[in-house]
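Usage example:
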Amino acid sequence: MKTQTMYEKIWEAHLVRASADEVPILYIDTHLVHEVTSPQAFEGLRLNNRKVRRPDLTFATMDHNVPTTDRSLPITDLIAAKQMETLAENCAEFDIPLYDIDSPEQGIVHVIGPELGITQPGKTLVCGDSHTSTHGALGALAFGIGTSEIEHVLATQCLLQQKSDTFEIRIDGTLPYGVTAKDIILSIIGHIGIDGGNGAVVEYTGSAIRALSIEERMTVCNMSIEAGARAGMIAPDDTTYEYMAGKRFAPKGEEFDAAVEHWKELPTDEGATYDRTLQLNAADIAPQVTWGTNPGMVTDVTGRVPDPADMATADEKTATEHALAYMDLKPGTPITDIPIDRVFIGSCTNSRISDLRAAAEVAKGRKVAENINAMVVPGSQAVKRQAEAEGLDQIFRDAGFEWREAGCSMCLGMNPDTLMPGQRCASTSNRNFEGRQGKGGRTHLVSPQMAAATAVTGHFIDIREFSS
Amino acid sequence: MEAFKEHVGLVVPLDRINVDTDQIIPKQFLKRIERTGFGEFLFNDWRYLENGEPNPEFVLNLPRYANASILIAGVNFGCGSSREHAPWALQQYGFKAILAPSFADIFRNNCYKNGILPIALPADVITSLSQEAQDTEGYQLMIDLEQQSVICPDGTAHNFEIGDFEKYCLLNGLDEIGWTLQFETDIAAFENR
Ligand code: SF4
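Running the assembly step on the lines above writes:
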């Protein structure tokens, strides 16, 4: 019998055309759209007199640009406002459902997709955003595309795409106390490097992955792109079916049962092989903190800032020198000695309700250290409502955190939430690139627990030693 | 899309690895709704000083590299965000081709769709071409897409790989959407399955 990986099954089930001498045409079940990467795609449609083939498979929201302060006030950034207005006009013109800034469903596209049940196991899903890999947590084949490809999917509901390599990353064992899904993925990237997954679709397997909740799986899949992978995915299981049940766009009743039967056929067959494999033990993973200017420049919280002289190649030495100069860090500094100015809890990596609960548990009854500005930005309006119903907002506010409206916010600082030059931030987001959170800003990536603990101590601290 | 067949141009070496798309075009320029006007913001944070003046030390600002149209860089060029604004900025600045030991996946794809040629060559070849571009003022390379070859002034040729379909699209400046739409009946049949 032919054995296949999950990726190969989903891939094959979506081939519209595959002849040996042509590039394969892949059908796309779900297309998510946001304000930043779509305007030129709609413009292209208009110029060529083309329609959106399946507005019913397309969903739009506003997240990157939206202010996270009082939504009843007018938007002060006129260019950003224009971009949001353009999305609204395009959705109206092409009949695409839009969760706009005033919608109770508004939120980061990768948070609301799963939340609404738009993301489903076995589906192909794309979005003009590299962190589309997040949706693979439910067993979907989900990846980011550029604006030309957005236009292509709008017009044809298909993509021209070559098949990727498969890469199994297997994590067995039990995660130690204080170690989270964020630490799993940061440590994977530390192992394989930021191009270690280039061109591959990663499937995360093993007992440590199975033990994760869907939200935690999303954190892992989210950062697949930071290892250069095209997509990350995790096979659906009972945890997945439970998560899907009752979601707004999920199948209902008998249809749901039929869907579950189909989902059960998705996991990789026993005996199927991957092009590449990597195995890690969960027990070996410690809380992670990045020290440099890409997510691969990462170490254990008990570690130190590395010395460029210790790097294996001349290129890496130069890159490390650049990074340390930009980050204003000295080789050999213990990570826990690094003081910070700002804390950002949010982004499509870590802004779901379980992330906020974890951070609130640390913040509860404590105070944000003096001179530190800390903010919590829920991933969606639904997450915000849930957190408020549980009183998490009050815990954060009492501790001195700012409590904001949903959006991408300081993950990339396209809205007014940015670092000032020279400011150092403990951030639960996914990219510590130069200038990502604001020109001259310095970003250290950590888990929500570590971010909250850092906020109250004023410097990085090993969450495992932080008394609760 | 503009067709790409052959190109001869001045080479500028950017001696950095893992150049991410946040560097190529920082986020504050992503708010435009047009497809044009990104070239002047290419590498903004490296290219300009605090006061908005060009940074005289940044390689693109050196007079000898003005009008360069071929960029050489280190491994994993274009990693990070999927923003197509990155290839737009490179193209609108005037780059026709980028040479590096490797490229990030989405970025490479986005280049093909905009008539820019991402050429992956072995690391030692990249290092030596980059050295030549530093040592020799006015150093030019010729790129022949049909032959899949980068040709040095002394006649040495370095062959590179490219997918047949990508090559076909670039050589013909093909409209990919038009290509897919010719299979409309297949798409409809798939939808009715
Ligand atoms: S939260 Fe950050 S990474 Fe996620 S979609 Fe928004 S900008 Fe991109």
